[in-house]
Write a structure and sequence with these properties.
single chain; 2 domains; two-stranded antiparallel ribbon; 16 helices
Length: about 375
């Protein structure tokens, strides 16, 4: 885990030194060719143009005020006075946008704990954005899609963050990495201490994660549910998870993060009722289905036979083990998607050889590929 300090909040593109982080790896020619046509098909973690435009409408003073108000509300809902517990995230900050996180990490009006928590959340998001492409890169030996994902993530950060020297150093390193990969797709770039991808790969080799722990998420969820129940009773209504109820007050858990919902579904400490876990599971299953459908629809439009497998790998890798368990995504799903990706990539490579061989009146032809003479 990279050390986080109040004076220097963690930034996913900040300089670091890690043994072996700049080491090169060489993949096979087949892996290079198979990956080359698939780099743009996988789902990217980025903001829509509308979301970025909405972010840009506020000046930084307004961003600071909004961040302070949101953080105060989150702490009150969770019944906490600090977003950290024992040096780890104890508060779900996923509702803050990128500009708000940067404001919280960099402005002295926030406490050291708050700035450190924002830095940890920034790290978590960067790791989530790169986890899927990294999984594919480890199989294929081609790092181009991974560096493209890093570029997309960095370009999606707020204007204030993109104006910093750290951002420029990291973005320049990624751009140089992409230039090196054009010549050698199977060799990991050696870019020095400003390379955010090398930082991610170094961090991913550890078992530690900056994400809020499941016990803390469960405690926060319990506090929030109890508050919602109290509000319903204060209004003279019985709390209910039935949206169609005309007499009770509907308890809507759709605003909970997926990790918070997972903590309710898993309920390792027996804090939740069967009705609460059922409501949380329903929302999680709906999100899971929407993710798979979006991945399928995106893949069907891409023209790349490996795209759906890539999208599943990306989605699977971006979830924590607890989230996957809660939603019912087994390791077999990941293994099947990876096998499908590798097999399809090999077939694409073989047919590419057939096509080029036929064009040159030599090499493989379709009959040879199918076992003929």
């Amino acid at each position: 885990m990279v050390a986080v300090t109040a004076a220097s909040p963690y930034s996913p593109y900040a300089g670091y030194t890690a043994s072996g982080a700049g080491a090169s790896k060489t993949g096979t020619a087949t892996a290079q060719q198979a990956q080359a046509g698939a780099e743009s098909a996988a789902t990217s973690v980025t903001l829509s143009e509308a979301a970025r435009a909405a972010m840009a409408e506020r000046d930084f003073t307004a961003v600071l005020a909004d961040t302070r108000a949101k953080l105060k509300a989150l702490l009150e809902e969770a019944g906490r006075t600090s977003p950290l517990k024992d040096g780890r995230l104890a508060l779900d900050l996923s509702s803050l946008d990128q500009r708000e996180l940067y404001a919280m990490s960099s402005d002295d009006t926030f406490t050291p704990d708050e700035r450190e928590a924002a830095g940890l959340e920034m790290q978590r998001r960067f790791e989530a954005a790169l986890s899927g492409p990294a999984a594919i890169a480890r199989v294929t030996g081609n790092y181009t899609a991974l560096y493209k994902s890093a570029a997309t993530y960095l370009d999606g950060l707020g204007a204030e963050e993109r104006a910093t020297a750290e951002w420029k150093a990291g973005r320049d390193a990624v751009a140089e990495g992409l230039r090196q990969l054009q010549a050698k797709p199977g060799t990991r770039p050696d870019l020095g201490p400003n390379d955010p991808v090398a930082l991610y790969l170094a961090l991913s080799e550890t078992a530690e994660t900056p994400a809020t722990s499941m016990p803390d998420l469960a405690a926060n969820a319990r506090t929030t549910l109890d508050r919602l129940y109290a509000e319903a009773q204060a209004n003279g209504k019985a709390p209910t998870f039935n949206r169609a109820s005309s007499t009770g007050q509907y308890i809507d858990v759709s605003g909970f993060s997926s990790r918070a919902l997972s903590s309710i579904v898993l309920d390792k400490d027996g804090q939740f009722t069967a009705e609460e876990t059922r409501a949380a599971r329903t929302v999680l299953q709906s999100r899971s289905g929407a993710t798979l459908l979006a991945g399928f629809q995106s893949a069907s439009k891409s023209g790349d036979p490996t795209a759906f497998s890539q999208n599943i790998i990306n989605a699977f890798s971006s979830l924590s083990a607890e989230e996957r368990q809660a939603v019912g995504w087994s390791d077999q799903l990941y293994q099947t998607a990876m096998q499908s990706y590798v097999t399809t990539s090999k077939l694409m490579d073989m047919f590419s050889q057939v096509t080029s061989g036929s064009a040159n009146n030599g090499g493989l032809n379709l009959a040879t590929l199918l076992g003929g003479q």
